[in-house]
Amino acid sequence: MRGYFITFEGIEGSGKSTQVAMLKKKLEDRGVPTLCVREPGGTPVGQHVRKILLNPETGDLDPLTELLLFWAARRELVKNVITPALEQGQTIVCDRFADSTTAYQGYGRGVDMEIIDTMAKIMRNGVWPDRTIILDLPAGAGLNRALDRIMFKGSTDTRFEDEGLEFHRRVRNGFLKIAESNPDRVKIVNAEGSLEEVSEAVAGALEDILPELSNPC
Ligand code: TYD
Question: To test ligand 1's pocket by mutation, which of 16, 100, 101, 134 has the most ligand atoms within 8 angstroms of CB?
């Protein structure tokens, strides 16, 4: 049987990576084979493109160039990693996917939504999330968390975190609109609770398609 494709979305500092790791552990503890991937990245070409997109030295990019680079990296991941793993029956948990492009390049940068949707149809190789979890919190709180993490880790890939608060507010608003338009696929989880509370809420938002999550270990 084909595996499920689960994506996590949200603004900077929403805690996606931690929740991706917690969900993987929960699923594997219950015998569900799970592969985690992240975007942009996850393939050799994706890693190169990631550097271009996230390094502040890249400077301003034309929004359509940026859109094409995100989709170039994603297409490699979809064709070479996600599609084969789903066909082998693995559940995929992906840290960001096409909704990030709608939120950041569409709502954030103002790229025409028709172009965004057309690109998605052309490039997705028949793959689309079965369920998307949006970890939601106010843009200011998320950005502060992200900037603290950058200081702590000394990360230099800050091209998006360097954008102003208004940009991140538009992105958050974009994610909320995506959820409103896709109520069956997209579920919003409040990201401001403790790690355990958020993880419980994530599991609750997946139990209808992954009933194993309601089993105790
Ligand atoms: P990353 O370091 O992976 O950040 P995060 O931990 O917040 O996921 O950086 C990915 C950045 O790229 C993030 O700021 C969001 C942005 N992005 C887009 O603008 N469009 C996209 O399609 C994707 C996948 C990410």
Answer: 100
Q: What is the pLDDT of residues 160-169, one digit of tens each?
A: 999 999 999 9
Spans of the chain below 70 pLDDT: none
Asked whether 27 and 176 are in contact (CB, 8 A), the reply is no
The Cβ of residue 73 has, within 10 Å, a number of other Cβ atoms equal to: 23
Rounded Cα–Cα distance for residues 21 and 197 (Å): 15
Cα–Cα dist 84/81, whole Å: 6
Q: How does DSSP classify residue 206? A: T
What does the domain layout of the chain look like in residue ranges?
A: 5-211
User: Token pair 């996230």 is at which residue?
Assistant: 54
Asked if residues 116 and 67 have their Cβ atoms less than 8 Å apart, the reply is yes
Q: Do residues 174 and 108 touch, judged by C-beta distance below 8 A?
A: yes
The percentage of residues in the chain with a pLDDT greater than 70, rounded to a whole number, is 100
Neighbour-count burial of 111, counting CB atoms closer than 10 A to its CB (0-12 exposed, 13-18 middle, 19+ buried) = buried
Cα 152 to averaged position of ligand 1 atoms, centre (Å): 19
CA 85 – CA 130 distance, rounded (Å) = 15
Domain 5-211 belongs to what topology?
Rossmann fold (3.40.50)
